[in-house]
From TrEMBL:
The keyword Signal applies. Residues 31-253 form the Solute-binding protein family 3/N-terminal domain. Keywords: Signal. InterPro entries: Solute-binding_3/MltF_N. Gene3D superfamilies: Periplasmic binding protein-like II. The lineage of its organism: Bacteria, Bacillati, Bacillota, Bacilli, Bacillales. Pfam families: SBP_bac_3. Transmembrane segments: none annotated. Residues 1-19 form the signal peptide. This is Amino acid ABC transporter substrate-binding protein. PANTHER family: ABC TRANSPORTER EXTRACELLULAR-BINDING PROTEIN YCKB-RELATED, MEMBRANE-BOUND LYTIC MUREIN TRANSGLYCOSYLASE F.
C-alpha cells in the first residue's frame, strides 16, 4: 500500500507540473504574444543579423508598450494562424493580416490600419502588362493568403493555366525568377519592397486584382484585449508615433487614421 501511495503522489505531482506548463504563453498576464510570418517583408522579416524587423514589428512594439505590457513575437505557420490564435498559443495575429469576411467569422479585428491591394508581379523583361496577358500562364502565390482569395474572385482565374502555392512569398518570387512560374499574386506593399531590393528584376501589371486593408486579429471573446489594443493604436495616431514608423518603412505616412 505504501508503494502504491508513493506512486500516486508522484503521478499527481507530475500532472500538476504538466498542467502548469500547458497553459498560455502569457503566464504572468503581462506579455502579449504576437504570431507573425517572419518572411513577410517589409511588414515583418529577419534582417542580415537574423533580427526581426519591419513596419509591423515596430508598430507592435510601440503599441504594446503603450498598453503597459511586454511583447513577444512568435513565428508561426501562416496557414495555421487562426488555429494558433484559438488555441491560446498566441494572443494576436499581426503581420500584414488582411481583413476579409471569412476571417471576420474566425477572429475579432482591430480597425484597419493600412491600405493594400493584391497585384500581379512578373519579370521585368516580360511583355505582360494587363491581367488578361496571363491567359494560359502558371501563377504562384502564398498558401492560404488573401492573394488566393483575390485570384479566386477575379475573372482572370478562369483563363490561367494553373496555380502553385508556396509557404511564403520568398519562395514564390524565387520560382518566378527561375522561370517555373509566369507571375506571382502578392501584396502590393511586399511587391514594392522586393522591386526596390532587386531593382530591374520585377514589375507590376497595370491592373490590380483587389483592394484590401490590414488589421490585427484577436481571439473571439477577448473584447477586453481588443479594446485595450485599439485604444493604444488610437493614441499612437494622435501622438504621431504611427506616422513616424510609416515614414521610416514606406517613406510616407500611410497609416489609416
Amino acid at each position: 500500500m505504501k508503494k502504491i501511495s508513493i506512486v500516486a503522489i508522484l503521478l499527481g505531482m507530475v500532472m500538476m507540473v504538466v498542467a502548469g506548463c500547458s497553459g498560455s504563453n502569457n503566464k504572468d498576464g503581462n506579455t502579449v504574444v504576437i504570431g507573425i510570418d517572419d518572411k513577410f517583408a517589409p511588414m515583418g522579416f529577419r534582417d542580415d543579423n537574423n533580427e526581426l524587423v519591419g513596419f509591423d514589428i515596430d508598430y507592435a512594439k510601440a503599441t504594446i508598450e503603450k498598453m503597459g505590457k511586454e511583447v513577444s513575437f512568435q513565428p508561426i505557420d501562416w496557414s495555421s494562424k487562426e488555429s494558433e490564435l484559438n488555441s491560446g498559443r498566441i494572443d494576436l495575429i499581426w503581420n500584414g493580416y488582411t481583413i476579409t469576411d471569412e476571417r471576420k467569422g474566425k477572429v475579432l479585428f482591430s480597425k484597419p490600419y493600412l491600405e493594400n491591394s493584391q497585384v500581379a508581379v512578373v519579370l521585368a523583361t516580360s511583355e505582360y502588362s494587363v491581367l488578361n496577358d496571363l491567359a494560359d500562364k502558371n501563377l504562384g502565390l502564398q498558401s492560404l493568403s488573401s492573394a488566393a482569395d483575390a485570384l479566386n474572385a477575379n475573372p482572370v482565374k478562369d483563363i490561367i493555366k494553373g496555380v502553385t502555392e508556396y509557404s511564403d512569398n520568398v519562395m514564390a518570387l524565387s520560382d518566378l525568377k527561375s522561370g517555373r512560374t509566369d507571375a506571382v499574386i502578392i501584396d502590393e506593399v511586399v511587391a514594392n519592397y522586393y522591386m526596390a531590393l532587386e531593382e530591374g528584376s520585377f514589375k507590376l501589371l497595370n491592373e490590380s486584382l483587389a483592394p484590401e486593408q490590414y488589421g490585427i486579429g484577436v481571439k473571439q471573446g477577448n473584447e477586453e484585449l481588443l479594446n485595450d489594443l485599439q485604444a493604444a493604436l488610437d493614441e499612437l495616431n494622435i501622438d504621431g508615433t504611427a506616422s513616424e514608423i510609416s515614414v521610416k518603412w514606406f517613406g510616407e505616412d500611410k497609416v489609416l487614421k
